[in-house]
User: Fold these one by one.
Assistant:
Number 1:
Amino acid sequence: MGGDATTLDQRAAAELLGWWLEAGVDVAVDEAPRDWLKDTAVVSSTPVAEADNSQIPADFAAFRTWLEQCSDLPLAKGGTVRAAPRGEKLAEIMLLTDMAALDSQSEPIGGEAWELARKMLAAIGFAPEQAYLANLSCFSGPGVRLGGADLERCAEIARQHIALAAPKRLVLFGDAPAKALLGGTVVQRRGKIHKVEGVRTIATFAPAWLLSRPADKALAWRDLLMLMEE
């Protein structure tokens, strides 16, 4: 359904099957036939007013450097840790999550959450290197929360980030990215295809959420399937 049509090695196959089982997929096909050729309704995100992007670089390389070095970003303050994006532009899929966990070793998604994200990618046919990883906010710290003007500014930066990275698909992991870019929570926005900066988009539960609430893995699996239905 996506990525290169290559033979899975033993580890990749195990990860793929592991995610399917965790998501409650225990049959090879659906009980009812699926019309893969039907038109998929596209729900566009609510239009927003043009933002002043004068301080946000318009070149991808310059933008990445700006994110990694700029001190005038939301939540950039003492005690917070910066996590830079990972991956290349024009990726098969972009994963945008709220903010890095404090134990993520400055990676956008780290630890057990990344292991689960890797299984989710494998289940839809992508290797980790085919994904572009980023956070809505580059910074995380004890008690840090996104809201108000900080959330609006992060949304402005994220739209430019998505436009410059130009992935083929976009996954918004968690409530903060969904609120910032789609105007609602995951529960309110999941189950539909959206467009963000022209990119086919879904909102779904973040890996960290799924680790503590495994019953929602089946819902996340449905969201991923819908993203791949083109």
Number 2:
Amino acid sequence: MSLDPLDPPLHGSLPPEGAPTAGTVAVVGAGNMGGAMVARLSEKGWKVTVCDIDLTCQRAARAAGAMLAENPARAVASLRPGGVLIVCVVTAREAREVLFGDFGAARHMRSGQTVMLCPTIAPEDTEAMAEQLGWSDIACIDAPMSGGPGRARDGSMSLMLAGSARVLDRHAGLLNDLSTQQFRVSERVGDGARTKLVNNLLAGINLVGAAEALALAERLGLRLDTTLDVIERSSGQSWIGSDRMRRAIAGDLAPRAHVTVLEKDTRLAVEAAQAVGFVGPLGARAAQVFAQAHGAGLAKLDDASLLKYLRSGGQPPP
């Protein structure tokens, strides 16, 4: 994610730095999940400032009532004392750039403000960023999320929270407006990231399994829609399998979650397992399937395209 200033900005100027505001939040990364969070918070009455280099995301944020900032440093200028910066990018590298890069937010934040880290990243990266923020008395909430944009928009996504109970209590209003499904994992920053990796490893395994099962059903001459009807009401059901395979059967591979997302997440989960000496039979194989699908040219498609990949016998589809 590049953080060069927008050219040109789509909205008017931000309020002067230090101007009094109430209920303010800055969000960096207003894609599928971040954009849904922006829309929900705006609807709930929060004054939201958004930084995202994608023009479509900018327009959606502005339509939701958010103000735009050209970089993270300017985004946090709108925060009141005790305000929150929500980082909703994809990778640890992007999160570090948001916080500590040339246009980084951290050095423009004030003591007592809070960063909420939402990406799925390695626990050690979350811990390192939280430690660096702590040097400036900036709190960190480790807050990976799950459920997809629809659930982020209606407030029913899962939030896996780790951090000081005092900090979580202080921001209960914001967290409650974001999600009715909150899990306080522990007070140790990094445990939210660990929980998310465990969840996403299982999601990846379930998705690979669902795609494999339907590819087999097709080879056996079965109707895929009927087969999925049976699976959804039987012991083979999984949420991600149903969600993705319904779209795959319909030929809808427009990206909601690119193949590269679960490729990254399953790889990180396997690396976390290796770090504690755990070797399981399925995780590494699922991660390998996502990497192979990427290599077969499906990286920019929705991860529902695993069915397309396995239909072809694991070869690059025509």
Number 3:
Amino acid sequence: MTEADRSGRSVRVDRHSMLDRHGLDQLIDALRARGYRVVGPTVHDSAIVLDELESGAQLPSGWGVTTGPGIYRLRRRDDAAVFGHSAGPQSWKRFLHPPRQQLWSVDRNGTYEAPAQDERPYAFVGVRGCDLAAIAVLRRVLCPDPSADSPTARRFQHLFLVAAHCTEPGEVCFCASMGTGPAAGSGYDLALTERIDEHGHRFLVDIGTDEGASVLDDVARRPAAVGEVDDARTAVTSAADRMGRTMPEVDLRLLLRSAREADVWEDVAARCLTCGNCTMVCPTCFCTTSEDITDLTGDHAERWQHWSSCFELDFSHLHGGDVRVSGESRYRQWMSHKLGTWFDQFGSSGCVGCGRCIDWCPVGIDITEEAARLSQVLPAETPEDA
């Protein structure tokens, strides 16, 4: 049976298959054979990072992580799970919205050149529910016209997504309270639920699109039994009750409208280093700046775009000076935009509950704790007041 998802793609529903560990390797091989650049989690530099995969052997088999405010440690698991870890320091954003990219170059004689683009499509393997939601947010922000003929739009147009339903949330995860997990939402081509028990190491596969079904035809698999489907669904559902963090159950958009003069900001500023780590690891922060460079002769110039952060002092610079000079004002701007005014711009929250900003804050500032403090000291505006 088929239907259409929000992007207009043909969606296959009500079909489930089961892969063994070798089948997962075959899935990666099948995607590579179709010309995809397959990206997934792997171990490098004492962290689980995202990188291009040549085979399933590069997946982080038997590795987990211990996380907390300002804490991220790799640890060995007592099984061979490949998706038994929470969000690492990188998000899929770096492939869809590169940290640094050339926009154009020009020579003194006026010769203009667009940069060469690698047009091979991406296939992402192991996308958590929070990150799947983040990709959807970036798609809305960066590609308001999904059919546009631009390098960024084409990355989204040809993207193949293999989601991973989460069964083991981390200590800083709060996707359940943001409505983005632990089950992956819509938008995937295939979704996997990893199970390891006395019956072996296997993956329940949900088929999301006809494209996903076509790729799966190249992989050895078997039909999933009803009991296996129920077991996988129960494992994902129970993960919602084991989140390490939670956002307060208030209307954050209305709360933050009242919070401009709250003492909480001053307390945060006393700890915040304004380093911008939170914006760099965030899967939805999208701000950029550009720079023009020339060679020593002045015969060749290039324009480059790179990520920027609202924690940078000159981010708000206007003629006459910087608008947000204090660390207090910059942290308030980041949090208020992420949880509040993002709704006004893009129709959703800019936070997906992945917890990366908590993990990678050098001083352990916790966005869920700060939101809870605001909810305790300030009454949220009512809709009539807004």
